[in-house]
Structure formats: structure tokens, C-alpha cells
Write a structure and sequence with these properties.
Helix content is about 40%, strand content about 15%. With about 350 residues, it is an alpha/beta fold.
Amino acid sequence: MTVSATRTGIVHLTERAPQLTGAEMVAALVPPPQFANATFDTYRADPAYASQQEAKDLLIAFTGGGTPVKGGLFRRPKRPEIKPGVYLDGGFGVGKTHLLASVYHAMPARRKYFGSFIEYTALVGALGYQNTVELFRGSDLLCIDEFELDDPGDTMVMTRLLGELVASGTRLAATSNTPPNALGEGRFAAQDFLREIHAMAASFQTVRIDGTDYRHRAVDGHATTLSTPEYEAALADVATAGLVSDDDFDGLVSHLAHVHPSRYIRLIDGLAVVGLRGVQPFTDQSAALRFVAFIDRVYDAQLPIRATGISLDLVFPEEMLAGGYRKKYLRAISRLVASTLA
């Protein structure tokens, strides 16, 4: 089936070789579509977890917002010092990105940016370090979603960049993930973050957010898998009104090695559904990590996934889940489950 002028039909991502300029990368530094209108008012704190309301109150203060609510963090007449940076530490699906986007929208700033850690490091790679510093110098706010601590090189580059920006007056807000319902692990994640950015750790205030993953509250934790006839029927149905991708799982995973992660967003441009045939477990960690970055972009774009083969929440074998990239894989599983149910 060919693609028509109205962008319907079926395409193969393995045939796409997207390009992305530095200017396009900068223009994309805004909250993802599902958080385009996120506000503090639309964030529904779970009453079972007081830290959610406390985090919301603190972030409202961080943006210079209204009077703290009764029972919040700031019941005392004198409000505590607000540092130039805040770090949201908590598990998957507790609303950290919603709150981060709320900070972005609420901050009365002329120049502000919102992007994932990988988007910022990709920009440094595309423009060069000094050009990136000059690009962001004088900006009012930088929001960094999913700050990664597992690549020492990237972490050092970002720490240096953020240090220069804070010195020039830029305010920072960052999030990272810890496994859901893992008692104590969030605290260690905060310590890891502050240790890695030790040169500017004093600029950050850690905000702990507890809770359960909202993406899993009504499901059993498994991604939906389809038979081949069900899969083909599902893609054909969507393809009559929108653009659908249909790729062999191994083929797509191999193709991702030839596309820079900063271009994954362009790889899925225009799609209504992502289709994966013959899903199977990873045996190579580099391939698994590229797939995680791809799924981050798919989830940000709110694209449903339809798949055959093993359930997508089982693609990362136990030895990978037990390793240093555990948090990344668990985040991806959470998003894969949600995307197959969409």
C-alpha cells in the first residue's frame, strides 16, 4: 500500500533516513504533546501520598506562583529559600513530567526550554559545546526530563553546561526515574544525582514524589500482544485514515543503530500507530538501549503500539534488568505497556 497525499497507508521505518538540523532541534525543545497544556491545576495529587501535594506546592513557589495552600509546605510565615534548581525524584508514573511541564508553562519567562536529557546532549553533539552554551546563555529556564546518570561522558558535559548557565542566572528543573514502589531507592537516586553534579549540587533542591504508576493502576502490568491476523487487521483499519508503520522487530532494531537518537522523533513523524512484527528478547545491550530511546519518543508522541511475538514488557531479559541500566529498562516497560493498551 502506498502513502497518499493525505498521509494514509502503511510505511516501513526501516526505509526512513531522517535528518534534523540544529535549528529544528532547538525548536523542538517544548513539552511533548500530552503535556502541551499541563498546569498545576490539572495535576491531581493522590491524597494517599502527601509528597505529591507537597511537591506541587514547592514548585508553585519555585515559579513565583500564588499563595501556598493550607496544609502545604509553606505554613510558616517565612517561606524558605528557593534554590535556582529543583530535582524531582520519584518512581514511574507519579506525575513528575506533568509537574515539570507545569513549571515550564507557569514560569513567566521570555526564554525557556523543555527537553529530555538525550535531546540536550544531542544538541551539544550537533552544535558543539561552546555554541550550545551561547545558545542557552541568558535563558530564564531549562527543564530537563529524565536526567540520565549512566553515561559518565554525557553527565559531565551536562554538568559543565548547567554550571555555566546557572552562573549566568538560568534556573533549572530536572526529573529522573526510580523503580515504582521501591522503598528507599528514590533516596539513593537523589544522592546519585547530587554526587554526579557535585560541582553545583548546592544549586539544587531535591523534591521527593512518592506514589504508584498511574499507567498501571488499572492493568495487570503486561503489554498486549496480537496474533498475526489481529495485527494485520488492526493496522489495515488505522491505515484507511492515518499513517501506520509496519516493521519486523529485528529489522527495526538494526535500523536504529544507523539513526542518531536525536532523529528518532523524525523517524516516527506523521504516524498514527507503530507496528512491530515478531517481537523477541534482546541479546545485545546496545540495541536494547537504542530501543529504549526510541520508545521514549514514541511515548512522548502518544503513539499506540501494535505488536506480535512475545509481550513487549518481556523484551529485556533478567540479566539486563539486574544491571546498571535497570531504571531505564523499567521506565521503558512502563511505557510499552501503556502504548500497547492505547
